[in-house]
Design goal:
This protein is α+β, with helices and mostly antiparallel strands. It is about 25% helix and about 30% strand. The chain has 12 helices and 37 strands. Strands 18-17-19-20-27-26-25-22-23 form a 9-stranded mixed β-sheet, covered by helices on one side. The protein has a 6-stranded mixed β-sheet with strand order 7-6-3-8-9-36, with helices on both faces. Helix 2 (about 40-75) runs antiparallel to helix 12 and helix 3 runs antiparallel to helix 4 (about 140-150). The radius of gyration is 42 Å and the shape is elongated. The relative contact order is 0.12.
Length: about 650
């Protein structure tokens, strides 16, 4: 037993007073003689005996009364079982990622969790609340009510270990209790290893319907005179046996409609839309998560892409045939006839079997590549190796080593490389392998595109985040290789002329720090802005001569179709979509949370802490005992003779 005011116990010395009174106020009996004293002696003995008992009873009662009264004022108590954590600060980590849009037994998981917090945390309880997008330090349920009711969903995944690092930075020297409210989608043991399981409660929200369908991508798969054929990718999580309606709209006007029935996890549908500039939206209705049912896309007005081929006319013939389509404006020239003024207007430049790369061309191409252009280098057997490697050093860490005159087969395709996006319906390993008779070895850091049977690179690539550099390891003329006769040559060379910077399609994923290069000339202190009817922001901008690189970082916060404006003039249309990282509701693994105390509501956590950490106050019992002793004293006075 402990006392809140132990100094009051010094008043126990007052118990000496009733003892002294008892000792010094004893009654002295006076003797009186009678003729017949037998009866009086018996009465005297009885009276003296009962009076002594009464005095002792009164003394004990008064001593106890005073003692219990003093103890009551000292406020005795028993310590709580978990007394060491009684003063912990309460921290609530609330998941507001898109997976919390799912519906549980009582509605949307996030809205139910907010209601649970507001209803079950006492108004006088101070706490801090952190979500994926918002932070509220040292607040209470009344002060935070309006903000919580307006809380929006976040495109970022819920990461408890990241939030706890913020808490520790803000409150480094305090002990804390945590309540984690989440559906657990995407959690790993690493996410939770920093938490003290003894002071952390986990409220695990569960969706009733875990099946979900997401629109994942849109690509232009074919172009005709009047139409774009777009391929729409969808992914199913869980099982869905119903046909799903799909609609394509532009400015709320319907362009196309269809129905999709899933036979496997991923499905795609091809639809023709008018060949024009479009800022559209693809929508489905699956009765599950709303956030991934819409996919925004922008297609600019068709424009020709400029391709410059520098090399020998006879050796350039196969390249001109590949780039002769309506989407390309192709120029073929030798170095001697090269017009340097045209280089900055190109999107792709191919150096086809040059003897060497003069310093003047190296400098010009360095600026071109830095500003987002594509460079393709096809080596010449008798080229000046040190000169070409010197040029490559200006653009990347890739270089050639000496020529190898051994025949090699090209056997491996990197199907994940952007060059082959939407080229193959499935991965193939058994095809007619092209060959080369001689080749250079490609050294340095690069991405493999096509490889020989020994794992070395036939075609490699690198990027500076704006432009792409493609490097063949061997001449691909008909004397050295049959690659020109391979089905691989057309998609490989064709797609080198198209990249993110000059593609007609301008669709980006929020929070993936993507960038785009636009044609624009900015004056001093002038910036481009990105906006739609509901949201606007100014991205990070880098001026590149007559172009501007926009880097989006984590912006915008809302998906949709946007316009890029310069002095109130629209210069480009862009589309942004939320990442589909929260679409799979079937990945909740409760085994990751086995060490945590699970609760069904915030009230449950508050009750457990109340039970474990509330001390047992005894002063009321001592005061009640004091009153009881007072009553006993009165009864002794009245009934004991």
């Amino acid at each position: 037993m402990h006392f809140k005011h132990p100094e009051i116990l010094y008043f126990l010395f007052l118990l000496v007073i009733p003892i002294l009174v008892h000792l010094f106020q004893l009654r002295k009996f006076k003797k009186t003689y009678f003729t017949n004293v037998k009866l009086l002696k018996e009465l005297q003995q009885q009276t003296q005996k009962s009076s002594t008992i009464k005095k002792w009873l009164l003394l004990v009662t008064r001593l106890l009364l005073i003692a219990f009264l003093i103890l009551a004022f000292a406020q005795p108590f028993f310590k709580a079982k978990d007394d060491t954590n009684a003063k912990n600060e309460l921290i609530i980590l609330l998941d507001n990622s898109f997976s919390m849009q799912a519906k549980g037994a009582n509605g949307e998981l996030l809205r139910k969790s907010i209601q649970d917090i507001l209803e079950n945390i006492p108004e006088n309880q101070e706490f801090s609340l952190l979500t994926t997008s918002d932070i509220f330090w040292d607040t209470n349920s009344k002060a935070i009510q309006s903000d919580l009711q307006k809380l929006k969903y976040s495109s970022y995944a819920f990461q408890p270990h990241y939030l706890i690092s913020k808490v520790e930075a803000k409150k480094p020297n305090t002990t804390k209790d945590y309540i984690i409210i989440s559906d657990g989608i995407g959690f790993t043991e690493k996410e939770l290893e920093k938490f003290n399981t003894e002071t952390t409660f986990l409220s695990l929200s569960k969706a009733e319907n875990k099946s979900n369908i997401a629109v994942t991508k849109v690509d232009i798969s074919a172009v005709t005179d009047n139409f774009y054929e777009i391929t729409i990718g969808l992914q199913q999580f869980g099982n869905n046996e119903n046909e799903i309606p799909l609609t394509i709209t532009e400015n709320e006007n319907t362009i196309a409609k269809t129905q999709i029935k899933f036979s496997k996890e991923s499905e795609s549908v091809k639809i023709n839309i008018p060949k024009k500039a479009i800022s559209g939206k693809i929508s489905i209705e699956d009765g599950s998560l709303p956030y991934d049912n819409n996919f925004y896309f922008s297609i600019e007005e068709p424009k020709k892409l400029n391709v410059l081929i520098i090399g020998n006319e006879t050796k350039n013939d196969f390249l001109q045939r590949i780039f002769k389509g309506d989407e390309f404006e192709t120029t073929e020239t030798t170095f001697a006839q090269l017009n340097f003024n045209k280089i900055e207007n190109q999107q792709t430049i191919i150096l086809n079997e040059l003897d060497e790369i003069p310093q003047s061309l190296q400098n010009t191409l360095s600026v071109f590549y830095k500003n987002g252009g594509n460079l393709v280098l096809i080596p010449y057997e008798k080229m000046n190796l040190s000169n070409v490697n010197s040029a490559l050093k200006n653009w990347s860490s890739i270089y050639f080593s000496s020529l190898n005159n051994q025949e090699k087969l090209i056997t491996k395709i990197n199907f994940n490389h952007p060059l082959y996006k939407n080229v193959f319906e499935k991965k193939i390993s058994n095809f007619q392998y092209p060959k080369v008779n001689s080749n250079f070895a490609i050294q340095g850091n690069s991405f493999s595109v096509l490889q020989y049977e020994d794992g070395s690179n036939f075609l490699a690539s690198t990027t500076n985040s704006l432009g792409n550099l493609y490097l063949f390891s061997a001449p691909i003329n008909k004397e050295n290789s049959n690659f020109q006769n391979s089905p691989l040559i057309v998609p490989t060379i064709y797609n080198m002329g198209i990249n993110k910077g000059n593609s007609n399609q301008s669709t980006f994923t929020i929070s993936e720090n993507e960038s785009v290069v636009l044609d624009a000339v900015l004056s001093k202190d002038e910036v481009l802005s990105v906006s739609n009817a509901n949201y606007s922001f100014i991205p990070l901008q880098q001026i590149l001569n007559d172009k501007v690189k926009l880097s989006f970082g984590d912006y915008p916060e809302q998906d949709g179709n946007y316009s890029v404006t310069q002095k109130n003039n629209t210069i480009a249309k862009l589309s942004f979509n939320y990442p589909r990282t929260e679409s799979n509701l079937t990945v909740q693994d409760e085994a990751n949370f086995s060490t945590f105390t699970k609760i069904n509501s915030v009230q449950e956590a508050m009750d457990i802490w109340q039970q474990k950490r509330t001390e047992t106050n005894l002063w009321k019992w001592f005061l009640a005992t004091t009153l009881l002793l007072l009553i006993i004293e009165l009864l002794i006075q009245k009934f004991v003779k």
